[in-house]
Amino acid sequence: MKKINISTIQAKKDPQNLWVGEIKIKDGTGKSSLLSIDLDDLLPFINCVGKEVYDFFFISASVYGIDRFIERKNNSVDGWSREISVSFPVHNLTLWNGCKEDLEKLLSFLTGDYWAISFRQEVSTLPKATLKSNYAGVFEQVNLFSGGLDSLIGAIDFLKLNPTKKILFASQYDSQMHGPKGDQNKLILKLQSLYPLQFEFIPSVKVFLKESDLARETTFRSRSILFIGLALVAAQATKTSKIIVPENGTVSLNYPLSSSRRSSCSTRTTHPFVIETVSSILKQLSINMEIENPYEFKTKGEMVSECSDKISLLTLIKDSNSCGKRGHRAHWRIRDADHCGVCMPCVYRQAALKDVVDGSTYGNSINDLFPIKEKRKMAQDINSMLEYLNKNLNEQEIKQELIINGVKNLTKLNQYVSVVSRTRDELKNWVKKVGNNYVKNKASV
């Protein structure tokens, strides 16, 4: 069991006279890291929220820091899962102890680890800051805005269908992740010209390990709860009661391409178990907030084809980014491309955009990877995907896998099965269109 000690949040001014928050993270051997949170834009929002939302956000940030601090490879008990024990500072011990079990289950599901959580009394306070007047209006909802294609479609759908209502966008980035902040800012500027005065955007909040005695973990699965914590702060501060996390049902369900990939590194922000468990925790904390994914029964291709403003979407597609490996360019055939082209987020994106003009550029195509002798690691996702498409799966097999993979609400099970089946068709049609003979034969299309 890896025992972790975390300090309470400390706020100070950086050399640019901007507020930053710091949380010291230390393990049982004395090794430590410093989690930095850019508070200058966020502090006015934090000042407006209740203690439980305050606690939820700083717990979510601390979890992110701990996840990045403890390298998985050297600290796992089974080659993947880590055992982590931590005490979080909170304002109301009784309330938080009441949802301890749900929080442990949530973190374990999100990160693939075993979490043992306790709570201690929070004593820190943060400086005061005034919320800017442009955030004082009435917002219909808070949308997470990652810079990806799904969050772009979620934004466009609301803006097109609700011309008299306003929406607030919020996001986060880590300076070790290449590109998200630039994607977000570029898209926001273009959306402002298309839909003026219909939304506000909280500048993307940087949360990162400023320094660490240990090699950092390279996966980012805990980013999910940090997104939710940030959205909670934004929503409650602006008296908004709905948070929308736009993501296609395929990625939400995170259906494994094989049994060995059930603990893959992809995030699970909108998996039904996550949405339901977060909602349960908020209810126990008396936080009145709805968290929804309106696209949970749609494939990525259906999100594209059913977008309410297709013209605007087509002009902005190339400015969004879906790649999960954009920082690893050493083996890209086109080094200055926008996407790697062969990770599963890139595959789902290309399959979804099969019938539209996609101005994005891709470093490799699926045909570049076979035979896979020289590019075995790069070909892992594609190889698993082709073998998955080659399988004949019936409805009962899909149901069983979905349940194993965390689906608890059986009233929605048939709809989830349909999403998986339609996604398989989407992928097969794409492989049939772009694959060479070897690739098509491997997928039996």
For this entry, give a set of tags.
alpha/beta, 15% strand, 17 helices, five-stranded parallel sheet, 445 residues, globular, eight-stranded mixed sheet
Description of the molecule:
The protein has helices at 43-46, 51-69, 72-75, 93-98, 100-111, 149-161, 180-194, 223-237, 249-253, 272-284, 300-305, 310-316, 344-352, 380-390, 395-404, 413-434, 437-443; strands at residues 2-6, 10-13, 19-27, 32-38, 83-90, 114-121, 141-144, 167-170, 172-173, 199-201, 205-212, 242-244, 290-292. It contains 17 helices and 13 strands. α5 runs antiparallel to α10 (272-284), α13 packs across α16 (413-434) and α14 (380-390) packs across α17 (437-443). It is globular and about 65 Å long. It is an alpha/beta fold and 445 residues long. The chain has a domain at 324-443. The longest helix is centred in the last third of the chain and has 22 residues, at 413-434. A hairpin with a 5-residue loop joins β2 and β3. The strands form two sheets. Strands 1, 2, 3, 4, 5, 6, 9 and 11 form an eight-stranded mixed sheet that branches. Helices cover 40% and strands 15% of the residues.
